[in-house]
Automatic annotation (TrEMBL), chain A:
Subcellular location: Cell membrane
The organism of origin for this protein: Streptomyces flavofungini
Catalytic activity field: a quinone + NADH + 5 H(+)(in) = a quinol + NAD(+) + 4 H(+)(out)
Name the record gives this protein: NADH-quinone oxidoreductase subunit J
Enzyme Commission (EC) number: 7.1.1.-
TrEMBL record, chain B:
Location of the protein in the cell: Cell membrane
UniProt domain 4Fe-4S ferredoxin-type: residue ranges: 42-71, 91-120
UniProt protein name: NADH-quinone oxidoreductase subunit I
Biased composition annotated in UniProt, kind: Basic and acidic residues: 156-173
Enzyme class, first EC level, given as a word: translocase
Cofactor(s) named in the record: [4Fe-4S] cluster
PROSITE patterns, alphabetized: 4FE4S_FER_1, 4FE4S_FER_2
Organism: Streptomyces flavofungini
UniProtKB/TrEMBL annotation, chain C:
UniProt protein name: NADH-quinone oxidoreductase subunit H
Subunit structure: NDH-1 is composed of 14 different subunits. Subunits NuoA, H, J, K, L, M, N constitute the membrane sector of the complex.
Keyword annotations from UniProtKB, A to Z: Cell membrane, Membrane, NAD, Quinone, Translocase, Transmembrane, Transmembrane helix, Ubiquinone
Ranges annotated as spanning the membrane: 7-26, 79-98, 110-133, 154-175, 181-200, 229-253, 265-286, 298-321
Protein family: Belongs to the complex I subunit 1 family.
Source organism (scientific name): Streptomyces flavofungini
Localization per Swiss-Prot or TrEMBL: Cell membrane; Membrane
Task of the protein: NDH-1 shuttles electrons from NADH, via FMN and iron-sulfur (Fe-S) centers, to quinones in the respiratory chain. The immediate electron acceptor for the enzyme in this species is believed to be ubiquinone. Couples the redox reaction to proton translocation (for every two electrons transferred, four hydrogen ions are translocated across the cytoplasmic membrane), and thus conserves the redox energy in a proton gradient. This subunit may bind ubiquinone.
EC number of this enzyme: 7.1.1.-
Pfam families named among the record's database cross-references: NADHdh (PF00146)
HAMAP family in the record: NDH1_NuoH
Amino acid sequence: MNLHVAADAPQGFLSPTGVEIAFVLVGLVTLGAAIITVTTRQLVHAALWLVVALGGLAVEYLLLTAEFIAWVQVLIYVGSVVVLLLFGLMLTRAPIGRSPDADSGNRPAALAVALAAAAALVWVVVDAFRTQWIKLDKPQGTTDVTGSVLFRHWVLPFEALSVLLLAALVGAIVLSRKSKDEPGGNGRQNRNGRPTPKAPRAQSDPKAQSAQTSQSGQTSQSGQTSQSGQTSQSGQTSQSDQADQTERTR
Amino acid sequence: MPPVPGSGLAKGLAVTLRTMTKKTVTEQYPEVQPELPPRTRGVIGLFEENCTVCMLCARECPDWCIYIDSHKETVPAAAPGGRERSRNVLDRFAIDFSLCMYCGICIEVCPFDALFWSPEFEYAETDIHELTHERDKLRDWMWTVPAPPALDPGAEEPKELAAARKAADKLAAEQEPEPDTAPAPKPEGDE
Amino acid sequence: MNDALDVALRLLVVFVVFLTLPLVIGQTEHKVMAHMQGRLGPMYAGGFHGWAQLVADGVKFAQKEDIVPADADRRVFQLAPAVALLPYLLVLLAIPIGPGEGAVGEVIDAGIFFVLAVMGVGVLGSLMAGWASANKFSLLGGLRTAAQLLAYELPMLLAAASVAMAAGTVSLPGIVAAFEWWWLPWQIVGAIVFFVAGLAELQRPPFDMPVADSEIIFGAYTEYTGLRFALFLLAEYAGIVVLCGLTTVLFLGGWHGPWGADGLGWVWTLLKTAVLAFIVIWLRVTYPRLREDQLQKLSWVLLVPLALAQIALTGIVKVAIN
């Protein structure tokens, strides 16, 4: 880790710089948006407040000069995850106004999990850095630095994460497969379900992606992609049916 | 040979690009008058001298847009001791062009050639009542009706003309019994 | 003080470009589309060949009443046009039109990620509009928008990743600086995938299923009137500027020209952008709208594999060179 650590610079929490003030303010906004996200009774508003929270997080990354992480945060979370979330909400149930039945019974459990996760993160970060003061005069989290750190020092966790994504993909395909005895199901094409190379991790990992592509490149043209197209298409139609139903019930 | 994949797409692009280089077909009407064929069906003119108030046009009109009023007049006998004739006199002839659908049935059905198509089309109004053209306006449209096409060079003279000329000749012969001046106003083609 | 002035000046220039270029493209679309259909297009506004038609449209939009439907979610409804429009303004900041620091609004280290991320945010505006309008057509339009974004974001990112691999950097000026002419055939598949996916993300015909007027009126924008509606339209045309500029910068070599003098780099960028914008209009005139299932199929079955193949090719060539 080539972080420039000022050895014993006279830094303190008094007389903060402008960046630090901004950091705290954005942090407060992010926290507020996150709290509204989990407490609001309006489902779509919750998703939109989540956008604010995730965007605030991106701004925090920016203030820490971790530009790459910030944009990836926006790209993945705001651009894709929230869109997916909104898509799901709109497909199933997104009334305008309050939805009193949207509350879940396992609030305490969720709170416990959240506190545990927060505690773990805080503990790890505090334990890792202690009282080190990282100077941000010059950018610390450029793409260059992030890339070399990721692929020199942290390759193994990175690959482990990609296995996790692969598992998720396999799971998605299993879920979207129709069973053979289902009437009207096109089980013939879907029988040899294999993971498709459409992993979204390509954005952060060109190298691994290209490696995976070269593996699956031969098959991707022939059977695999047509099969994936088939599944996505059938998923599409069933979704639109569902949308019709939603429309009618609304 | 099967078509190259994407050739249809390329063809479509070529069509639009070629169209772009060609002259447009837009008529810039208020600035430039359109070039219409001479017998364009723009408005209906009334040649009221020919109208006998037979009411055929008003009856055949599919949307009842022709209004005709008339009264009868008696004409004294032409010859002494003859019978008095009654004659229809036109009081009102109006076509409501807000109802008219320009089918032309009235013109087709008129037995006396009193209705004509005129190519004029610029008679839009801001008030719909103004679109009911009364007889004087309908008569005015007649000036815009193009003359009937000329006959072929060797064609027979129309029956009406021949009959009229015959009557005129007879009258002239009665008034001037001298034989030298009789054939003076004789046009050619009168055979 | 000088720095502040510099920043203000850059922002002003980008803002002016942001307001004028979409209008220029819109007017070009009016005229090109008309002539491709054998028409003349607008001829009156402004006198000469209707050059001020879009200005007149803007005046008209400004005069219209701003209506929010009674059942709509008021704040989200009113916020949506800004969410749709602002990202394109931000993206425009990052697109370099010439070499050097002076020809880009703001140098951003991870430029590709910035522009793609922010462009993706713009779609949130359509989603918000579609949901908040309390209209079934709007909701369907929003759903289609979301489905389309999810399908086409991936090939677009993959194609951009390919060119980033080729250049060895994710900064936009860096990519243009590293550009060589032989990249053109090398990255042509990626370029086409990027451009097509970008068109789909902008919901331009033939990918305008989310606003298919014959089915769902105007999709997510059905309930909008007046200035807010105009903002959505402006977002679409700003999107064209951004997409064409990005394709130019990423795949067509930006300010590099065949006999370009050094000072004329920005002319080349603008020229290439204009040609691409013409192609956008041309495609709109030529092709009919894709059906929703065809739309999804095109992305998942054709564009994603093509983009992956392009990445593989890029990787192989890159390794072979090194």
